[in-house]
Design a protein that fits this description.
Layout: H1 3-11, E1 15-17, E2 28-34, H2 38-52, E3 55-61, H3 63-71, E4 78-81, H4 84-92, E5 102-107, E6 109-114, E7 135-138, H5 144-155, H6 159-162, E8 166-169, H7 172-181, E9 186-190, E10 199-203, E11 212-218, H8 225-235, H9 240-246
Parallel strand pairs: 2-3, 2-4, 7-8, 7-9
Antiparallel strand pairs: 1-3, 4-11, 5-11, 6-9, 6-10
Helix pairs in contact: 1-7, 2-9, 3-4
């Protein structure tokens, strides 16, 4: 699948339901979530559905785009951002229930490489090798993981040299797709989505970028307030936390 095809596919496939599906007559909670949460939240959503007898629908995208859509009236009950600043921004506008905001993890970024690219890429400076023709990151204009990638490259002093090779995904999952398909030989993506076929990865030192403090909250316009609160409690509760930790989304001090 080439670059244009991936862009089209991602554009039409951001909204997905949790794995065990729906059915009429059940209460439903809609969660607008950062793209780095796709794997973790689909696992959590399926488990939550089985226990609550409800339906969970996810809308995945970049945190900045989702925040803008919520501000414009996106019908969702919960917002889970990859950067606490976007939740804080909605709080300032009176769009969330203040007492529901919680930190659910601190994200990490990885250097991801297409295993068929034929290049040895183990550190950020290796991205300057001539055989690495394209480097994928999420768009820093609205994706927190793109900002972290940019900061790490700047810290290593390679940002300016790499600019002509950069391919920007609308979110971190699209950046990963570019690497999986070989449209980019390497890139920087979230640890939480990196364990996929065709890709190997190396953890990037978190001192190279600002912390990815990730937060979620119930939206004030929800018609399912209790169910939305229950979902947040589930994410950070004894059943959700092991799943979040499995995908590398750890709370401060958590091991």
């Amino acid at each position: 699948m080439r670059l244009a095809s991936v862009v089209l596919l991602t554009a039409v496939a951001l909204a997905v339901s949790a794995a065990c599906g729906g059915g009429s007559g059940r209460p439903e909670v809609t969660v607008a979530a950062a793209a780095d949460l796709q794997f973790a939240f689909q696992d959590i959503g399926a488990l939550f559905e089985r226990q609550c007898g409800c339906k969970v629908t996810f809308i995945f995208g970049s945190s900045g785009n989702l925040a803008a859509q919520i501000d414009s009236g996106l019908p969702a009950d919960v917002f889970a951002s990859a950067n606490v600043d976007y939740v804080d921004g909605l709080k300032e506008k009176g769009l969330i229930l203040d007492d529901t905001q919680q930190l659910y993890g601190v994200g990490r970024i990885v250097l991801a490489v297409n295993e068929d690219a034929g290049s040895q890429v183990e550190k950020l400076r290796d991205l300057l090798k001539p055989e690495v023709r394209r480097v994928a990151i999420a768009n820093p204009e609205h994706a927190p993981y793109g900002v972290a990638a940019m900061q790490a490259l700047q810290s290593e002093g390679v940002w300016e040299d790499l600019k002509p090779r950069l391919v920007y995904g609308e979110n971190v999952r699209q950046a990963l797709q570019y690497i999986q398909t070989g449209d980019a030989q390497a890139g920087i993506v979230a640890l939480s989505v990196a364990a996929v076929p065709e890709v190997s990865y190396t953890l990037i030192d978190d001192s190279l970028h600002q912390p990815l403090r990730q937060s979620l909250a119930v939206l004030r316009r929800t018609a399912q307030e209790q169910l939305a609160r229950d979902f947040i409690a589930f994410v950070n509760g004894p059943q959700g936390r092991p799943i979040m930790k499995k995908y590398g989304l750890m709370l401060p001090g958590e091991s």
